[in-house]
């Protein structure tokens, strides 16, 4: 399959057209950004590590009945993916209270709620990616109530699978975000990366942060920590 023109450049990925109208190439970049692009840096081999992590996780989810946009990894930094119509909101799944939720509600990080928390955030940087609820999503024409029920069901299943996967390699899944899209036949599919850029993960033994917060909070060892996550996950999934 031939890669064609650049369609879109985001903070962490490049999207290219191909000679098949139903496929795109997603290329991961070494860029690290935080606080709406105010803080920026390049992390050596970050694109390679995130491509490996996301490719292995998406293949794992596909093998366990979750439909995604992922087709295959085609080189060290690129994936072949299905073309989808992206829904303009994120689902944040929270197993442990941390980050913006802790700050917003005045709760200490690390508190474990009795329930799993699902947040919806509108993807609009000018508005600060605000929290919305189901009724907002329907009123804005972003999704139907029926689609939202399905989205929550898929997100909960992904959470169960990833929590078990990460626990098996000594990592605690604190929270993560997922994005959804509609395929050409109207099917809802996961439609974004699943990497340390899009989740919070802590080492079970030490409590050490192993995600993008290392960059956000100037904790250092970003590249080394991402490499550790890649090694643990990829070794476990490719035994």
Describe the structure.
The longest helix is centred in the middle third of the chain and has 23 residues, at 145-167. It is built from six helices and 13 strands. The protein is globular. The chain has helices spanning 46-63, 99-105, 134-139, 145-167, 213-216, 222-237; strands spanning 3-9, 13-18, 23-28, 31-34, 39-42, 70-75, 78-82, 85-94, 117-122, 131-132, 171-182, 188-190, 199-203. A hairpin with a 2-residue loop joins β6 and β7. By secondary structure, it is of the alpha+beta class. Strands 8, 9, 10, 11, 12 and 13 form a six-stranded antiparallel beta sheet that branches. The protein is 31% helix and 32% strand.
Characterize this entry briefly.
The protein has 239 residues and is an alpha+beta fold. The chain is 31% helix and 32% strand.
């Amino acid at each position: 399959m031939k890669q064609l023109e650049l369609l879109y450049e985001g903070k962490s990925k490049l999207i290219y057209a191909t000679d098949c109208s139903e496929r795109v190439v997603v290329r991961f970049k070494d860029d690290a950004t935080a606080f709406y692009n105010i803080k920026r840096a390049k992390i050596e081999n970050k694109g390679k590590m995130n491509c490996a992590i996301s490719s292995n996780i998406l293949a794992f989810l596909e093998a366990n009945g979750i439909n995604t946009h992922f087709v295959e990894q085609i080189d060290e930094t690129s994936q072949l993916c299905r073309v989808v119509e992206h829904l303009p909101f994120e689902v944040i799944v929270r197993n442990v209270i941390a980050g913006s939720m802790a700050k917003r509600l005045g709760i200490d990080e690390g508190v474990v709620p009795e329930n799993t928390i699902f947040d919806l955030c509108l993807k609009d940087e000018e508005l600060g990616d605000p929290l919305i609820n189901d009724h907002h999503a329907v009123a804005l024409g972003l999704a139907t109530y029926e689609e939202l029920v399905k989205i929550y069901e898929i997100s909960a299943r992904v959470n169960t699978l990833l929590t078990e996967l990460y626990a098996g390699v000594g990592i605690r899944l604190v929270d993560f975000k997922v994005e959804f899209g509609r395929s050409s036949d109207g099917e809802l599919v996961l439609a974004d990366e699943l990497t340390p850029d899009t989740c919070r993960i802590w080492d079970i033994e030490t409590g050490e942060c192993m995600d993008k917060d290392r960059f956000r909070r100037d904790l250092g060892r970003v590249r080394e920590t991402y490499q550790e996550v890649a090694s643990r996950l990829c070794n476990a999934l490719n035994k």
